[in-house]
Amino acid sequence: MFWKIVGALIVAWIAFMVLGSVIGFVFKAVLWIGIIGGVLFLGTAAYGAITGKKQSKRITR
């Protein structure tokens, strides 16, 4: 009976270790994708703001 409990605890510990590493990897991947997306968004917005100032649009009547 003792060995069944120890075996169950070892299996549960291994399962939690695998699950934790998978969740950690997914979290890091999503974090880096968000950082890269934010940098690209800010770069595109800055480029649009810089190039948009050259073209002055006036409303004429």
TrEMBL record:
Keyword Transmembrane: yes
Protein keywords: Membrane, Transmembrane, Transmembrane helix
Transmembrane segments: 30-50
Tree of life domain: Bacteria
Protein name as catalogued: Uncharacterized protein
Organism from which the protein derives: Amycolatopsis echigonensis
Taxonomic lineage from the root: Bacteria, Bacillati, Actinomycetota, Actinomycetes, Pseudonocardiales
